[in-house]
Amino acid sequence: MILIIDFGSQYNQLIARRVRESRVYCQITPPSINIDEIVKLDPQGIILSGGPSSIYATNSPKIDSNIFCLKVPILGICYGMHFMVHALGGTVKKTKKREYGFSELIIKKHDDIYTGINDKTVAWMSHGDSIEKLPEHFTITASTANTKAASIADSRKKLYGLQFHPEVQHTSKGNKILRNFLFNVCKCKRLWTMKSFAKTSVAQIKETVKDKSVILGLSGGVDSSVAALLIHKAVGSRLTCIFVDNGLLRKDEAKKLKKTLKEHLDINILFVDAAGVFLKALKGVTDPEKKRKIVGKIFMDVFEAEAKKIKNAHYLAQGTLYPDIIESQSAFGGPSAVIKSHHNVGGLPKTMKLKLVEPLKHLFKDEVRLLGKEIGLPEELVWRQPFPGPGLSIRIIGEVTEKRLTILRNVDNILIEEIKANGYYRKLWQSFAVLLPLKSVGIMGDKRTYENIIAVRAVVSNDAMTADWARLPNKLLGIISNRIINEVNGVNRVVYDISSKPPATIEWE
After folding, report:
1. What was the pLDDT predicted at 352?
2. Distance CA 456, CA 494 (A)
3. Within 13 Å and on the Cβ side, how many CA atoms surround 166?
């Protein structure tokens, strides 16, 4: 495995993805990890990520410098390289000219990480500091017109530093450089697959749970369904899934999912109707974070009530994914910024006696789909588009009422019908409607109307960390708009969201 130290880079998830795409397992950890923990993990290589800090800034993130005494190959990227230089006796200074974007990289030494790469290639730069003095035994292995030490190495100790970002697509030979580090330097083997992950996860769940029982919140989405099937393979009938109808689901979704889940998953499933409780608690609430917290708290209250009815229940399983953790809190305790809270991350009550089991928390969504296929989850569930835990409450901007829910359900149903009918459902990461807290003037039947506005959102993505708005055909958008306005009472205007993530998020709240 490869250990990635999270210094707060916006590209951390890309480093992990590039490593995993090479079929090598990796784990991301904060710089607060101690040396003994690293030794226990026994990595074949370590990658120090980039980050927004300057190495000399107050409270800049640092890891124990004894990491360089472990005789493990280390690759420092951007800030990670600066930390390496600083820790080993070199110096870093603020550059006179910052370097952002494409740069021509001139390679001076083709051994190790540059094996098989031409003298000149394109690299993506993003830095305002650079190396002033190299540590002892280090040499410069590549330069750009603006940065003399664009990459450095102490081949004797297998320590390497890159000023540029090999993990982004803009660095033309970035994948080759990373794979050279993995296979030429670290001598990794291509052993990590969804088959091996499933086998290891089942073994870990068995070891953790032992003879106790597990409860899992089943939403019918791919994350919870994969988690349920994986845990079921480990503990069998000692898993009980609870499907909570929070009254915030899509049109007829509870009924459809009940049928689908019973048909395809041979697992104990309890169905709980708690719609009235959720809607009462959300009355008058307009702040999106409060909505998320309320939904999360009531969800756990319902869970605890049901858990008391299940004999020997000691564990709560969740389908938490890596992007959930990144957006909800500093990534694995690292310096990354909080974007929004997820109901299944950090929203658990301190009084909860159940222990957590999160077998998917190191995976991206596309990896979860691959895992689902590997362990036999039906295609219908594997390819279901993501649906937020707080449901339609965060797709209704403003107060959540039964009337507004009815409008949005009917609108959303039309949208999904057309997306599926025109062959776009599997091509899109998500497609959904948002009810805005605004009304607009319109004309219907020669009469003035003052009705609601609907925003349609459709995005393409690989893992939800970044996303681009989908270029749906104008004809399809016209059909969707026409059907919504004609078939749903209370709507007279439809707009299409053409924002990417970043700067926007996929959901509106």
Report:
1. 63
2. 7
3. 31
CB 275 within 8 A of CB 292: no
What is the per-residue pLDDT for 346? 44
Cis peptide before 503 (omega within 30 of 0): yes
pLDDT confidence of residue 326: 58
The greatest distance separating any two alpha carbons of the chain, rounded to the nearest whole angstrom, comes to 83
Angle in degrees, CA 367, 372, 373, rounded to 5: 100
Please give the pLDDT value at position 329: 44
Per-residue DSSP letter, 501: B
Q: Which residue has the tokens 């070199």?
A: 90
Low-confidence residues of the chain: pLDDT under 70: 99, 323, 325-352
Residue type, position 234, single letter: A
Q: What is the pLDDT of residue 106?
A: 93
**CB 377 within 8 Å of CB 229:** yes
Tell me the pLDDT tens digit for each residue of 171-207.
Answer: 989 999 999 999 999 999 999 889 989 999 999 999 9
Distance of CA 114 to the CA centre of its chain: 30
CB 180 within 8 A of CB 113: yes
Helix, strand, coil percentages, rounded to 5, for the chain: 35, 25, 40
H or E segment to which residue 337 belongs: none
Residue with tokens 């048909």: 263
**Of 188, 186, 113, the residue nearest 151 (C-alpha):** 113
Q: What is the pLDDT of residue 339?
A: 42
Active site residues: 78, 165, 167
